[in-house]
Structure to design on (83 residues):
């Protein structure tokens, strides 16, 4: 009876240990997945912000070009009017 009891205790301890290992593995996998998802979201947000900044810079550059062209056209027209 004692050997049966000690075998049962050993099996229970082994199954508890296996269950603990499974829980730890699941927790580690979940943490890794969450970290990867957070990193991906941060990268996507950074890419979107950089793209928006580049687009804003392009719009500003286009506006500067338009203003310069208008100034040149007005100056040329003024010079022709003076002649």
């Amino acid at each position: 009876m004692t050997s049966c009891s000690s075998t049962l205790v050993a099996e229970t301890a082994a199954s508890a240990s296996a269950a603990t290992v499974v829980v730890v593995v699941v927790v580690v996998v979940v943490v890794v997945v969450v970290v990867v998802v957070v990193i991906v979201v941060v990268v996507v947000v950074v890419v979107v912000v950089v793209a928006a900044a580049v687009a804003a810079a392009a719009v500003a550059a286009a506006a500067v070009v338009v203003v310069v062209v208008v100034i040149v056209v007005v100056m040329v027209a003024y010079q022709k009017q003076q002649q």
About this structure: The chain has one domain: 1-83. The radius of gyration is 36 Å. The CA atoms of residues 73 and 79 lie 10 Å apart. The mean pLDDT is 88.
